[in-house]
Specification:
The complex is a heterotrimer.
Chain A: E1 3-8, E2 19-25, E3 28-35, H1 43-46, H2 55-59, H3 67-82, H4 88-116, H5 120-141, E4 150-151, E5 154-155, H6 161-187, H7 189-195, H8 203-208, H9 214-217, H10 225-228, H11 249-273, E6 292-301, E7 304-313, E8 320-324, H12 326-337, H13 346-352, E9 362-367, E10 372-376, H14 378-400
Antiparallel strand pairs in A: 1-2, 1-9, 2-3, 4-5, 6-7, 7-8, 9-10
Helix pairs in contact in A: 4-5, 4-11, 4-13, 5-6, 6-11
Chain B: H1 7-14, E1 38-40, H2 50-54, E2 60-64, E3 72-76, H3 86-90, E4 96-98
Antiparallel strand pairs in B: 1-4, 2-3
Chain C: H1 2-11, E1 16-19, E2 25-28, H2 34-43, E3 48-56, E4 60-71, E5 74-85, E6 90-92, H3 101-112, E7 115-117
Parallel strand pairs in C: 2-5, 6-7
Antiparallel strand pairs in C: 1-2, 3-4, 4-5
């Protein structure tokens, strides 16, 4: 007979709220059900009331940490609708910002998942290393988050020579730190006990449930928008797709650390091959009307494939803007991954898909036999999961061998 | 060794200076090109109204004013500003510009705003 | 292109196929052929469903299904367009063909009011559960502010 545990919605530590309900028997999870919509702001409807150029500044606020991916994807789609081609130097600057964003997003995620399993040392180190990237981005674009560097027809700011020199230093520093983190993750017993064999998603299931991003690549599925449908400069850069056969949370950590090393190499290639002179945008004024058209644009955000569909009726305002974020595509696989695991495994599994909406605030445990209801906060679930593992880790290690 | 691979770096960090900057005590300056609170020079303004048409959040409202050539000037309600920079880009005489000031906390919304 | 010949052989001239200059293929089909066309596409290797887009153009509600086939270093995309009318909007569900349509069909039902028969557990995804029937924000005749909630006296959550 199963007990229902609802988890959610609002949590002060992570980015966005979600509500999940888990059906348990004893300590093992039998089924799960997601319930989203707590941060629904009506952006798709609002984008129909603003002009094509005003939407650039609305759509970068869909997500705080992948803001340049949203704005760049919209600008790429709008360029297909307006039928303009951005100049080459603009594509180099746009790709540089996308890769810098991937670096600081993966560093933040690494700190968060280490905090969820109780290894706070790595949480502090990764968030300290991330400040080097944030300072560089502030020098290039003027703000630490919400860079607003894209526009329809190109980019809005040019890059100085001394900032390019500093970019190479930052890329080398992050690559050496990422190699150090890979060595620690593969050799430290406490991390391996909590992540190896947890959250198993086989390759056939990953293809059947249409997972995207590093979650799919950690199950051996070789799909990446930069590799299969190259856009901007990605058909010329030295890009190797990163994938792993582990299919568990440890494989997802390794895939993201190796992607950081590849991103650092792409950044160095961009700096050495950027054209020294050239225009940075086409002359499209904010009062131009586009032709009647529709367009699709896809970009590899740090979490997976981001999809935009734009439709124009020849007006100053778009008729339909449709957004599909990568976390929505990965939610269906959480239901599949948690079956058969303990309650104490919920934090690493849910954090392992890198949710750009997050949950885990109040846990209500309903014990049907005793009719008793206890309410826990996220702090208490987190402490419970660490304490439970300390007591039972020998038993779990025997089971997983 | 199955544990303690961070020991070497942890010991090094115990004996070195902390990374945190004590912000209100130590003054921090923003880099060049930072997008801070807007500044407006009414002597360069023509009164064309283009800045009010491109703003995405309705910060700028044109009010009657005698100091400009077309007898209108913009009034800024900066509590709604998102620092996008559209008005800075389209102004034909460069009358609007960014400053390096990032202290935007006030007690009443009317205290932060520019009237010509 | 192989897929064009395959579809014209199976469905004749009920399917109209165009390719635009960015290499995207667009197909227009009537609503009752939806399940057969998607099943034929899935068997031809198009196993990734990006999303289901719905939009209202004033006369009818259009649905677009975006499917992708990935192979080594390349890909092919096909976009299937169909439509249903506004007053009695029903469409067949494709849950057995693409299991990830679980969340996409719930989103189209929530925001546009299209009912998918064959779906398990069709309920609202983004809006709260206690919103009344017939309240679908992305339709063109929707008036903002037509449903307001205020807490009752003495009620404290």
């Amino acid at each position: 007979m199963s007990v229902r545990i609802p988890i959610g919605p609002i949590h002060p530590m992570l980015k966005e709220p979600i509500n999940l309900t888990f059906y348990v028997e004893g300590e093992t999870i039998v089924d799960a059900e997601p319930n989203i919509g707590f941060v629904h702001r009506g952006i798709e409807k609002l984008a129909e009331n603003k002009t094509w150029f005003q939407n650039l500044y609305l759509l970068e606020k869909v997500c705080g940490i992948c803001s340049s991916s949203h704005q760049g994807c919209y600008a790429q789609g709008a360029e297909k609708v307006f039928e303009v081609e951005p100049p080459e130097k603009a594509l180099f600057i746009r790709t540089l910002m996308w890769e810098l964003e991937r670096l600081h997003s993966h560093l933040l995620w690494l700190g968060v998942i280490m905090h969820e399993i109780g290894f706070d040392t790595l949480f502090m180190y990764t968030w300290r290393d991330r400040e080097a990237v944030m300072d560089l981005v502030e020098m290039i674009s003027g703000r630490r988050v919400g860079y607003s560097i894209n526009t329809i027809g190109g980019v809005r700011r040019d890059i100085d020579y001394n900032i390019l020199v500093k970019t190479i230093d930052v890329a080398n520093f992050i690559a050496s730190r990422a190699e150090y983190y890979e060595r620690i993750v593969l050799s430290e017993r406490t991390i391996l006990d909590r992540t190896e064999g947890v959250g198993y998603l086989s390759k056939a299931d990953a293809i059947r449930l249409n997972t995207v991003g590093p979650t799919a690549r950690a199950s051996g599925v070789k799909r990446d928008v930069r590799y299969n449908m190259p856009y901007a400069i990605y058909d010329e850069t030295p890009f190797d797709i990163v994938f792993d056969d582990g299919c568990d949370v440890l494989a997802r950590i390794i895939v993201r650390i190796r992607e950081m090393i590849i991103s650092a190499e792409i950044i160095k290639w961009i700096v050495f091959n950027m054209p020294k002179t050239g225009e940075i945008k086409q002359k499209v004024t904010p009062f131009t009307k586009p032709p009647e058209n529709e367009a699709i644009s896809r970009v590899e955000a740090p979490r997976g494939e981001l999809f935009y569909y734009l439709k124009s009726k020849g007006d100053l305002k778009p008729e339909r803007v449709k957004i599909r974020t990568p976390t929505l595509a990965n939610i269906v696989s959480i239901i599949h991954m948690v079956k058969g695991h303990y309650i104490a495994d919920i934090p690493p599994i849910v954090a392992g898909i890198d949710p750009c909406m997050s949950c885990m605030d109040r846990v209500v445990i309903v014990d049907v036999n005793k009719e008793k209801k206890t309410v826990w906060s996220h702090e208490e679930l987190w402490r419970y999961s660490i304490k439970w593992y300390k007591k039972n880790y020998l038993m779990v290690r025997e089971e997983r061998r | 060794m199955p544990w303690g691979s961070v020991l070497k770096e942890a010991l090094k960090n115990v004996f070195s200076k902390s990374v945190t900057v004590n912000y209100p005590v130590v003054k921090v300056e923003a880099p060049n090109g930072f997008r801070g609170i807007l500044e407006f020079d009414v002597k360069k303004c023509l009164g064309c109204g283009t800045c009010a048409r491109v703003c995405p959040t309705n910060v700028i409202v044109m009010v009657p004013c005698e100091k400009t050539r077309l007898k209108k000037a913009p009034k800024f309600e900066l509590s709604k500003c998102v620092f996008c920079g559209s008005c800075v880009e389209v102004c034909p005489t460069k009358a609007i510009s960014f400053s390096k000031n990032f202290h935007t906390a006030v007690l009443k919304k009317e205290e932060i705003g520019i009237s010509p | 292109m192989g897929i064009k010949e395959l579809l014209e052989e199976k469905f004749g001239d009920k399917v109209s196929f165009t390719v635009d200059k960015h290499n995207e293929a667009w197909i227009n089909i009537p609503l009752d052929l939806l399940r057969d066309v998607l099943k034929a596409l899935r068997e031809a290797g198009f196993d990734h469903l990006s999303t289901i887009t719905g939009y209202d153009d004033g006369e009818k509600i259009n649905l677009i299904y975006h499917v992708v086939k990935f192979y080594d270093g390349k890909s092919e995309t096909v976009n299937v367009i169909t439509s249903t009318d506004r007053n009695n909007s029903v469409a067949p569900s494709i849950l057995e063909i693409y299991p990830s349509a679980l969340v996409y069909e719930r989103e189209v039902y929530d925001l546009l009011g299209v009912k998918f028969d064959g779906h398990v557990g069709l309920k609202r995804l983004l809006l709260p559960e206690n919103v009344p029937e017939g309240y679908h924000p992305l339709r063109k005749d929707f008036k903002s502010g037509s449903y307001l909630v205020s807490p009752k006296e003495g009620e404290n959550e």
